[in-house]
């Protein structure tokens, strides 16, 4: 019985999205709201990529620095 009720509620929400206006930004007709939503989405998508990229770049520089230090320490003194 619960399965049928859950299926009926899901079908009602999918077929009538106006009934489930949970987000005021997503369904707003104003252009400013849609633009803010798009910009925020782009920012929240790009920020983690930038953070991970920065860490990878820093690790790469650190690895090269340590590699150069090991190479200098192993070279014979002139």
Summarize the structure.
This protein has 78 residues and is mostly helical. It contains two helices and no strands.
Poorly predicted segments:
none
Distance between the termini: 87 Å
Order of helices and strands: HH
Number of helices: 2
Mind summarizing the main beta sheet?
Answer: none
Shape verdict: elongated
**How much helix is in the residues?**
over 70%
Secondary structure tally: strands:
0
Mean pLDDT: 82
Q: Helices and strands: which structural class?
A: mainly alpha
Q: Radius of gyration in whole Å, from Cα?
A: 27 Å
Q: What is the strand content?
A: under 5%
Structure description:
By secondary structure, the protein is an all-alpha fold. Helices cover 74% and strands 0% of the residues. The chain contains two helices and no strands. It has helices at 2-15, 31-74. The chain is elongated and about 80 Å long. It starts with a helix and ends with a helix. 0% of the residues are buried. The mean pLDDT is 82.
């Amino acid at each position: 019985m619960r399965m049928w009720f859950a299926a009926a509620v899901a079908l009602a929400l999918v077929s009538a999205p106006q009934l489930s206006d949970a987000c005021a930004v997503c369904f707003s007709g104003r252009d400013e709201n849609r633009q803010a939503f798009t910009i925020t989405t782009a920012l929240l998508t790009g920020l983690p990529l930038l953070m991970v990229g920065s860490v990878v770049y820093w690790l790469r520089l650190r690895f090269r620095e340590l590699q150069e230090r090991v190479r200098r320490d192993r070279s014979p003194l002139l």
